[in-house]
Amino acid sequence: MNKKAIAALMTLGIIISYSVPAFAQPTESELNKQLQQHQSEISKNKSALQNLKNKRQEIEEAIEMLDFDIENLMISISTTNSKIEQVKKDIKAAEEEIKKTEEEMQIEKDLFNKRMRAMYINGVDGYLNIILESKGFSDFLSRVEDIKRIAEADKKIIDELNAKKEEIAKKKKTLDEKNASLQALKAENEQKLAKLKQNKDEQAKLIAQLKEEESKYTAEISESQNKINSISKQLEELRKKPAPVVSASRGGSGLSVSASGNDVVGFAYKFEGTPYVWGGTTPAGFDCSGFVQYVYRRFGVNLPRVAADQATVGVSVSRNELQPGDLVFFKKSGRPVHHVGIYVGNGCYIHAPQTGDVIKVSDLSSRSDYYTAKRVK
To answer: Would you call 339 a catalytic residue per the annotation?
Structure first.
């Protein structure tokens, strides 16, 4: 390579070195500004996320009430169906009884007609002959009395059968009216049930949408937090100071929790993620009261089946004295208790929420329908 080529290359290198800009390290002020910006974003996103969670909690509570109403309607429909089946049996029995009475009436009418034909075989003359052929006045009176007695007996039997038929017919009419009323009630309840299920499906769709929005905000919060962590490291390096070590103290009185309460909570945690199943009482699927009943049965405590009845047992506990293992109940104004869970501490409780959800831990403060708490042993 000649001297001119070498000189050209050196000149080119010098030109390139001056043409490439040098990227300066961000200053502490700039980093702090970025840090504040991301912290502000996190604060806004957390606020929006909490609003979404509150909305979802309200909808989940509404679904709990829908489940409660659906359960009661299904019980009502089942009871109505049983009554309808019984009324149908009663109607069938009445129809058979009417048929039997009509047959008895026909038999009696046939016998009456045979007797009449025997008496009046030759018309009125034959009837008169029976009387005129009597041997003496005493025989005459006897024959007249016999004819009268037979006619009255036949009439009495026919009248009794007619009365019986009318009574059964009235009974059948009443049963038919009752059946029509029950059928109307069944149709009305089924219509209500369909509407409740439709509302529940709509609410479930809203929950799905809210969860999707929550995921977006959670992802944005996570991204902002990663940036904050990165900026914090840069600031740490820039300041050339180690991060201060803060020792967190666990002082304070705290709650004295019985071992049995902790045991209950520990056992309940084993079912996190188990699907909610209406009427469920096994690990294959629980409803709210079925879950609580199953957990406490493990420790020899037999609780009633439904939440409203469970709320009547145990010792009442104020909200600020809750301990792990206590039962927490929820109800709307003017309505019976519709939901129950197990307090786990730190303002949280574990429960089987509603159809489409799973057993999970939720924040007690997010509930607007908290009612009372009970401690059972």
So the answer is: yes
